[in-house]
Amino acid sequence: MCIGEFHRGRRLRRTEFIRDMVRETELRPADLIQGYFVMETSDTEYEKPIPSLPGQYQLSVDKLVARVGVAMGKGLRSVILFGLPATKDPVGSGAYATNGIVQQAVARLKKAYPNLVVVTDVCLCEYTSHGHCGLLSADGEVQNDPTLELLAKTAVSHARAGADIIAPSDMMDGRVGAIRAALDEAGFTHIPIMAYAVKYASAFYGPFREAAGSTPAFGDRRGYQMDPANSREALREAAADLSEGADILMVKPAMPYLDVLRLVRDNFDTPVAAYQVSGEYAMLMAAIENGWLDRKRTILESLTGIKRAGADMIITYFAEEVLDWL
After folding, report:
1. Is the dihedral of CA 224, 227, 228, 231 positive or negative?
2. How far is CA 83 from CA 96, 179, 224, 247, 250, in A?
């Protein structure tokens, strides 16, 4: 073979500036959504480390507002909130209480930072005494249709508090339609829904359940979250949520389901989000803190891979840190 007959791909990798010029995927601050856990407490200085999520905390509203302000100074554009109520009950009443913890946090954040995009997770699992995402029947089964009214009520309460985007994560059938109808009836036709459209019954949620106190008291969530073995089902779930009024489709988790993320991206032209969940964060942090992986390169590579697979936006607990590097 004569010199010059083979492809010389290294020509475009020779210097940092050339590599930057031909880069196909760019990670931007606007792509990142930082998750926060906000605690209902009388201690305004409450800031409790989460052992399984190094660098993440359960925060009082005051501490949340202060921490978000620092992150916004580095370029943070959006957050998603998870609430930890002071008390729980079988019907998750703290989720839709007018002065619930998420409602308080949303109001404070929007007053302090009007331009911040505040996304709220809508589910009952953090508020129910049994830890499931819906109401239970007498025999312990999660009831789908009776739960929809409470999810819709929760969504409207978040919108009234000032939320910019509503993100239902419960995986009840029909919940996007119920929430869309309730928001519209309450005058919130302008509020978009980011549907957890493709949410798997994943082992990677463990640290979140510690952080949010949402571990089921019995059983598991495989009766309403998706089987990790299925991908075609993802298209049916996404199509159903779009037909009910979803504006953004989410795939959760991210890294173990990059093939599903690409499938959703290729089949729908709506914005697509991905959630780099607590277990993904925890395992990367474990390797990083043991010195087995380079911190900056590992975190950026993981997020770039998620975006390359098709995500327009990424929920990640790394957002605050990554802003220092972008």
Report:
1. negative
2. 11, 19, 21, 23, 20
Q: Is the confidence at residue 3, as pLDDT, over 70? A: no
pTM of the complete model? 0.94
pLDDT level of residue 4 (50, 70, 90 thresholds): low
How far is the C-alpha of 183 from the C-alpha of 166, rounded, in Å? 10
- Asked if 153 is an active-site residue, the reply is no
Alpha helices in the chain (DSSP H): 16-22, 61-73, 101-112, 144-161, 175-185, 206-212, 232-244, 258-267, 278-289, 295-308, 319-322
Q: Can you tell me the distance from the alpha carbon of 298 to that of 300, in angstroms, rounded to the nearest whole number? A: 6
Report all structural domains of the chain as residue ranges with CATH numbers, in order of start.
28-249+316-322 (3.20.20.70)
- DSSP calls for 273-318: EEE--HHHHHHHHHHHHTTSS-HHHHHHHHHHHHHHTT-SEEEETT
Active-site residue, from 111, 252, 296, 307: 252
**Inter-residue contact 235 to 263 (CB < 8 Å):** yes
**For residue 209, what pLDDT band results from cuts at 50, 70 and 90?**
confident
Give percent above pLDDT 70 in the chain: 99
Task: Name which of 55-69, 72-86, 208-222 the model is least confident about.
Answer: 208-222
Through-space distance between the first and last CA atoms of the chain, rounded to whole angstroms: 43
> What letter would DSSP give residue 198?
E
**pLDDT for 77:** 97
Using alpha carbons, select from 172, 158, 86, 72 the residue that is nearest to residue 119.
158
Establish whether 199 is a catalytic residue. Answer: yes
The catalytic residue among 63, 88, 153, 199 is 199
Assigned token pair, 120: 């709220």
State the burial class of residue 35 (Cβ atoms within 10 Å of its Cβ: 0-12, 13-18, 19+): buried
User: Do the beta carbons of residue 303 and residue 316 sit within 8 Å?
Assistant: yes
Q: Are strands 142-143 and 135-136 parallel, antiparallel or unpaired?
A: antiparallel
